[in-house]
Specification:
Layout: E1 7-12, E2 16-21, H1 33-47, E3 54-59, E4 64-66, H2 71-76, H3 82-97, E5 105-110, E6 113-115, H4 117-124, E7 127-131, E8 137-139, H5 153-161, H6 163-172, E9 176-177, H7 178-184, E10 189-191, H8 196-210, H9 212-221, H10 228-246, H11 251-263, H12 268-282, H13 286-303, E11 320-323, H14 327-338, E12 343-346, H15 350-364, E13 366-367, E14 372-373, H16 375-382, E15 385-388, E16 399-402, H17 408-418, E17 427-430, H18 437-440, E18 450-455, E19 464-469, H19 475-487, E20 491-496, H20 503-519, H21 524-534, H22 540-547, H23 549-562, H24 572-578, H25 604-610, H26 622-642, H27 650-660, H28 669-676, H29 678-685, H30 699-707
Helix pairs in contact: 3-12, 4-5, 5-6, 6-11, 10-11, 11-12, 13-27, 14-15, 20-22, 20-26, 21-26, 23-24, 29-30
The structure holds 1,4-dihydronicotinamide adenine dinucleotide (NAI).
The site of 1,4-dihydronicotinamide adenine dinucleotide has 27 residues, from helix 14, helix 17, strand 18 and helix 23.
Length: 714
């Protein structure tokens, strides 16, 4: 089908063809099959014309050029045979390659995002100009989907910007801004949007006069000019870097590197054929499937308003009060400041308040380049944060988020004092990690304006926010909390009330199991290693130290009060809390923290301290540890689905990936469970059934195993 009408052809100054991409089906241009067919037809028409001096390709959509290939089409073809994928790549590349052989100069005029297939198309042109006043971003995010650029990106980028720059761009998957692209030689001109077309036409004229584009065409068809020593050095440094970043769990960046190194000595056509083969080897692999799933989870989340009604709109949040200047209060305040939302911060302990403000300013004024605080930034942010010493100072805030100690009585006392001082429109929220919102709202005059807004630790790294609906929370409050969280750059999911909500309810069985494993004789480092090998960013014991042992203890108590049959109350946590070992914040917990790096070292004193709680001495394989840590999580997820805690099973997966760093290359907990199958999970649980109900298959799992059903059905 080539009748989508996504591309318009016009003629400027009588001899410049302009192709304007403006797909009426969406807010961004996507290189779907039909758009590629349209391009093909236009290229055929234009190639036959003798009267043209140049072709300019641009976007009709303000702020966005092309966001890449159509991932939905990728998904539809995920099971396609290898030859079909090779063929799809070869066809796409050969289409774009025609831009480098047309009988006139070809220029891409880039305004806004130009990534993936869009970046490849732009690279096949002779020249590129870019708008300086839009947020032009150029990049190859393919590795983030477990793939590599398959339409000539790995062929063309090394030729246009040099192998080293190309390796960095392709293997990192990160986009660069217009200025960096200009410095790299990727774009020739950086001009205001209004002058973009004129600049592109000027480039055509200059190239026609000078003829440099013809010499480049010849050169860029050849193998790269790079010596073996340089190639060896680049390979060694880049592979070490990739290994460090991926932990060997994401194959695409390394595959892209190996491809580019191996193809350096080939001409562009031969390199293109190799690229297609390399792309086909990655396409449809488990990691590719998992990462495509994460892409769709994220995409769905971006569009979700948190409520199903269309008639309710979020109210604006212009200022935020934060109560509690501890770990979480600091992180939440910093997230607001970074989006220039003014914050009023309060704490019952004056020292905690001043220390909190200092830490917040340190975080927000951190300068990556200087690797330290930036005084100018600190001054700017200091004006946005005000300490509150009396409740009245919180009165004008549109939203007040409480992040004090995890104790329902203390929290309720605070609300009783504060609520009458707030405006009737204001929203009061708790960052509680486990206490039911309905329980906290019990004594409030306006429970409909009370909601859980639960951030994750560390806030600067974890994109997830759980918006928790209490029994009386209104749709407007939910919609406002969701819009607010998005506004400060977070990914909110709405969950129904209940102990531990979603993520902590899933996390607690996993973390608790690590304590049981210690008591069953497993070594702490073996537990940590197994979880990390599974793909978790840190082991469960380190996670305890990051969260804070006291907070984790309170959270655990809420959980074992709610689910006494399956959460065992381990004596290990209270022992650490009693010893004042509260985790990173006190310099010791399960591990010792000697400096600010956050890296823990083993402490023999802890091993000694745990001795009375060790029930048996046994050796465990990493597989046994992994099964004990992660299968209870899957079981809990089945209970969560039955209890309708989430509106969609995909929220379980998004929540864990964005909230605790569950490995994206596994696609999410339920996606991973589906890759095993319910019957296999029932089987894997068998050896652990003697540990008690926490390891027994749930009715839902058994039913799924029997029916061969998956979590991602339909
Ligand atoms: P924290 O112990 O680091 O900080 C709590 C702060 O609240 C302290 O500075 C304390 O002086 C202050 N405070 C205590 N009672 C107060 C009162 N009545 N009025 C004013 N200030 C008071 O605790 P953290 O870790 O920041 O936790 C705070 C809340 O966030 C808890 O509800 C916790 O469950 C929740 N949370 C904690 C996470 C974590 O990983 N630590 C993650 C997500 C939520």
């Amino acid at each position: 089908m080539a009748d989508a009408g996504a591309i318009k052809l016009s003629i400027e100054e009588s001899d410049i063809a302009v192709l304007t991409l403006d797909d009426p089906r969406g807010s961004a241009n996507v290189l779907s099959r039909s758009v590629l067919d349209e391009l093909d037809q236009h290229f055929t028409t234009l190639e036959g014309r003798k009267d043209l001096a140049g072709l300019v390709i641009r976007s009709g959509k303000p702020g966005v050029f092309i966001v890449g290939a159509d991932i939905r089409e990728f998904l539809a073809g995920i099971d396609a045979p290898r030859e079909q994928i090779v063929d799809m790549c070869n066809r796409g590349r050969k289409l774009f390659q025609r831009l480098s052989t047309m009988p006139f100069v070809t220029v891409t005029a880039i305004e806004g995002q130009c990534v993936g297939g869009g970046a490849e198309m732009a690279l096949w042109c002779d020249r590129r100009v870019v708008s300086s006043d839009s947020k032009a971003m150029f990049g190859f995010p393919e590795v983030k989907l477990g793939l590599l650029p398959g339409w000539g990106g790995t062929v063309r980028a090394p030729r246009v910007i040099g192998l080293s720059n190309a390796v960095e761009l392709v293997t990192s998957g990160e986009s660069i801004d217009a200025k960096t692209a200009n410095l790299m030689g990727l774009v020739s001109d950086l001009v205001p949007s209004a002058k973009l077309l004129a600049a592109a036409i000027q480039v055509v004229r200059a190239e026609q006069r000078g003829g440099q584009f013809k010499r480049d065409r010849g050169l860029w068809q050849q193998p790269l000019e790079i010596g073996d020593t340089e190639l060896g050095f680049l390979g060694a440094t880049a592979s070490a870097m990739i290994q460090g970043q991926t932990g060997g769990q994401y194959p695409a960046p390394m595959a892209a590197l190996e491809l580019m190194l191996a193809s350096a000595g080939l001409d562009a056509d031969a390199a293109g054929l190799e690229e297609a083969k390399a792309m086909a080897s990655l396409f449809g692999t488990p990691v590719n499937r998992a990462l495509i799933n994460v892409f769709f989870l994220t995409d769905r989340n971006k569009k979700d308003t948190g409520i199903d009604r269309k008639d309710v709109k979020p109210q604006p949040i212009r200022s935020v009060g934060v109560i509690g200047a501890g770990i979480m209060g600091q992180g939440i305040s910093a997230a607001n400041l970074k989006r220039t939302l003014p914050v009023v911060l309060a704490d019952a302990v004056p020292d905690a308040l001043s220390k909190g403000i200092q830490q917040i300013l340190e975080e927000v004024s951190y300068d990556k380049e200087k690797q330290g605080p930036n005084a100018q930034k600190a001054v700017k942010f200091a004006a946005l944060i005000n300490p509150a010493t009396v409740d009245a100072e919180l009165a004008p805030c549109d939203l007040v988020i409480e992040a004090i100690v995890e104790n329902p009585e203390v929290k309720k006392q605070l609300y009783a004092r504060l609520e009458p001082r707030l405006s009737p429109q204001a929203i009061l929220a708790s960052n509680t990690s486990t206490i039911p919102i309905t329980q906290l709202a019990a004594g409030l005059a306006r429970p409909e304006r009370f909601v859980g807004i639960h951030f994750f630790n560390p806030v600067r790294k974890m994109p997830l926010v759980e918006v928790i609906r209490g029994a009386k929370t209104s749709d407007e409050t939910i919609a406002t909390a969701v819009a607010y969280a998005k506004n400060i750059g977070k990914s909110p999911i709405v969950v129904n009330d209940g102990p531990g909500f979603l993520v902590n309810r899933l996390l607690l069985p996993y973390m608790n199991e690590s304590l049981e494993l210690i008591s069953d004789g497993a070594e702490m480092k073996a537990i940590e290693r197994s979880a990390k090998k599974f793909g978790m960013p840190m082991g469960p014991l380190t996670l305890y130290d990051v969260i804070g042992l006291d907070t984790a203890f309170y959270a655990g108590r809420v959980m074992w009060e709610a689910f006494p049959d399956r959460i065992a109350a381990s004596p290990i946590l209270p022992a650490l809390v009693k010893a004042g070992r509260l985790g990173q914040k006190t310099g010791s917990g399960f591990f010792l923290y000697k400096d600010k790096s956050g890296r823990g070292t083993p402490d023999p004193a802890v091993v000694e301290m745990f001795k009375p709680y060790i029930r048996k001495q046994e050796k465990y394989t990493p597989e046994q540890i992994t099964a004990r840590l992660f299968l209870p999580m899957v079981l809990e997820a089945t209970r969560i689905l039955e209890a309708k805690v989430v509106r969609d099973p995909r929220d379980v997966d998004l929540g864990l990936i964005f909230g605790v760093g569950f490995p994206p290359f596994k696609g999410g907990l339920l996606f991973w469970a589906d890759s095993l199958g319910a019957a296999k999970i029932v089987e894997l649980l068998k050896p652990f059934e003697n540990l008690g109900p926490r390891m027994h298959p749930t009715p839902l799992l058994l039913e799924m195993a029997k029916a061969g059903r998956r979590f991602y059905a339909g």
